[in-house]
Write a structure and sequence with these properties.
Keywords: DNA-binding, Transcription, Transcription regulation. One of its GO terms (molecular function) is DNA binding. InterPro entries: Bact_HTH_transcr_reg (IPR050679), Chorismate_lyase_/UTRA_dom_sf (IPR028978), CP_lyase_PhnF (IPR012702), Tscrpt_reg_HTH_GntR (IPR000524), UTRA (IPR011663), WH-like_DNA-bd_sf (IPR036388), WH_DNA-bd_sf (IPR036390). The protein has eight helices and twelve strands. By secondary structure, the protein is of the alpha+beta class. It folds into two domains: 64 residues, Winged helix-like DNA-binding domain superfamily/Winged helix DNA-binding domain (Arc Repressor Mutant, subunit A, Orthogonal Bundle), CATH 1.10.10.10; 159 residues, 3-Layer(aba) Sandwich (Chorismate lyase). The strands form four sheets. It has a six-stranded antiparallel β-sheet with strand order 6-7-8-11-10-9. A two-stranded antiparallel ribbon has the order 1-2. A two-stranded antiparallel sheet has the order 3-4. The longest helix is centred in the first third of the chain and has 14 residues.
């Protein structure tokens, strides 16, 4: 026999067994996650709603949710809600790292969605990376990394303005960096160096990525060079820490 309820628009059935009730509820929610009925990042009903739907106490629901959280299946964010945990995407970092190729290899859809581009004076950090002098004109281009129709990260690239005049216009119409560089006769480039770190997002970043400010970002700071070793671009990619895993080869 089954206890029947409603949960996220799908019929919930909790089998009567000798297992504790909280464990049966946890197993049912886990099955919905495994079957794809509850998608990564999807918000679950509140404890009160779940207790009504399963006809149990809030304490029992808390036990079930705590078990799911320990297994890494849900995230409980106080003041915000309960969410199905994200599935981490293994993102390969090697000498020829390409955003679109990484996703294609995994059978995922994705895009770099252009946000903005500005002309700025190079900071000391950017100048050193691009072999320029501090204050030289650079073009700063930012984009939102979309994976399977959901925001996964923010990408900011810095280019020498004298060498890549107009690249901001190309990126506005086609956010593919590889295609934009090809317009300047650059058919190939490689990763010279990568620095990986982590930090918390700003309010603006959290809003763009649709995450709370308490969720960390994993950040890749890199320098790309052409086949002669001349710097092409300095960039910083900040990904949601629970959505991306870096693999280094």
């Amino acid at each position: 026999m089954y206890d029947r309820g409603r949960f996220s628009g799908a019929e919930v059935m909790v089998r009567r067994t000798s297992d504790p009730l909280w464990r049966r509820i946890a197993s049912d929610i886990q099955k919905q996650i495994d079957d794809g009925k509850l998608a990564p990042g999807e918000q679950l009903p509140t404890e009160i709603s779940l207790s009504k739907q399963f006809s149990v106490s809030r304490f029992t629901i808390r036990q079930a949710l705590a078990s799911l959280e320990r297994q890494g299946l849900v995230q409980i964010e106080h003041g915000r809600g309960i969410f199905v945990a994200e599935r981490s995407i293994p993102f390969l970092l090697d000498s020829r790292t390409r955003f679109s190729e990484n996703l294609k290899r995994l059978g995922l859809s994705g895009e770099r969605r252009f946000i903005d581009a500005t002309h700025d004076d190079a900071s000391e950090t950017v100048a050193v990376a691009l072999d320029l002098s501090p204050g030289d004109e650079i073009i700063t281009a930012s984009a939102l990394a979309i994976v399977d129709h959901r925001p996964a990260g923010l990408i900011t690239d810095y280019y020498e303005a004298a060498r890549f005049a107009g690249i901001d216009k190309l990126l506005r119409t086609n956010a593919s960096r590889t295609a934009a560089l090809a317009a300047y006769g650059i058919s190939d480039y490689v990763r010279h160096s990568t620095l990986i770190s982590s930090r918390m997002p700003s309010g603006a970043e959290a809003k763009l990525l649709n995450i709370p400010r308490t969720r960390p970002l994993i950040e890749s700071t890199k320098i790309d060079v052409d086949t002669t070793g001349r710097p092409l671009a300095f960039g910083v990619a900040s990904f949601c820490g629970d959505r991306i895993q870096f693999m280094i080869e």
